[in-house]
Design brief:
It contains eight helices and 14 strands. By secondary structure, it is of the alpha+beta class. The protein has two domains: about 140 residues, Fructose-1,6-Bisphosphatase, Chain A, domain 1, CATH 3.30.540.10; about 120 residues, D-Maltodextrin-Binding Protein, domain 2, CATH 3.40.190. Helix 1 runs antiparallel to helix 2 and helix 5 runs parallel beside helix 6. The radius of gyration is 18 Å and the shape is globular. The chain starts with a helix and ends with a helix.
């Protein structure tokens, strides 16, 4: 049954992606869920397409989706983000995805992440490996932080995070080859899984932003934890460090440092 759910998830992601690929560079109706938290008419259209398709294929399945559909107290359910990276999409930037996960006991069993603008379809099933366009992917083998390319995400409300957001960014920036802000949590995780990026961290986002991505990283051989090193990523506020595994402990130390070595880091840079 999981194989059939994967086939449906991929087909729906491609169908929604075809619509969004035509729409992202054009006119949109944009509203605000918060000061910088945007919603477009295409978020709603994409969500409607995905939810309808899942319910048609699996009428007894519960679905939790970002914008309008919350109907699960069940142990197994679908978790959907119709457009992850809405701000990028609203501004015509190509880094956005459709993100679909199937959850059991709060753990993703399958994940699909589709970036229609770049034609990248990422997928993973628990125990079955991770793929980009049906070709296996693995995390990088980079073990030297100074040679690593990293990414950090920033919440819509920085006041909600439990750690020194910008201090951590500065500490790690001086030790690494660079830090990118993609603006799309799921796509960033997919790029960690594919070895394009070596690690990514963020706090204060929601489960539909990262559920599929954590499975991709795990199935590609990477490591996952909260920013404080604990395992319960879904505990609010959600927190994530996704890495190739080789850099994980060093990044945890820097993320949770008091910043007393910042001057030395600048000199090394």
């Amino acid at each position: 049954m999981l194989d059939r759910r994967m086939a449906v998830a991929k087909a729906l992601a491609l169908q929604s992606g075809a619509m969004l690929r035509e729409a992202y560079a054009g006119d949109k109706v944009i509203t605000h869920k918060g000061r910088i938290d945007l919603l477009t008419n295409f978020d709603l259209q994409s969500e409607g397409l995905l939810v309808e398709g899942i319910r048609e294929a699996f009428p007894d399945d519960a679905v939790v989706a970002e914008e309008a559909h919350f109907d699960s107290d069940q142990a197994a359910y679908w978790l959907i983000d119709p457009i992850d990276g809405t701000t990028n999409f609203a501004h015509g930037l190509p880094d956005f995805t459709i993100c679909i996960a199937y959850m059991q006991e709060e753990q993703p069993q399958l994940g699909v992440i589709y970036n229609p603008a770049r034609g990248e379809l990422f997928s993973a099933m628990r125990g079955g490996g991770a793929y980009r366009n049906d070709r296996p992917i693995k995390v990088s083998q980079q073990s030297e932080l100074e040679q690593s390319l990293l990414s950090a995400g920033y919440p819509y409300n920085p006041g909600t995070v439990d750690f020194d957001l910008f201090g951590a960014w500065q500490r790690i920036f001086y030790r690494s080859q660079g830090i990118r802000h993609v603006g799309c949590a799921s796509l960033t995780q997919a790029w960690v899984a594919a070895g394009t990026l070596d690690a990514y961290w963020e706090e204060g986002f929601r489960p539909w932003d990262f559920a599929a991505g954590i499975l991709l990283v795990q199935e590609a051989g990477g490591a996952i934890s909260r920013i404080d090193g604990s395992p319960d990523i879904f505990r609010e506020p959600c927190s994530l460090l996704a890495s190739n595994g080789l850099l994980h402990d060093e990044l945890l130390e820097l993320l949770n440092s008091d910043g007393s070595h910042a001057d030395g880091m600048r000199q090394r840079r």
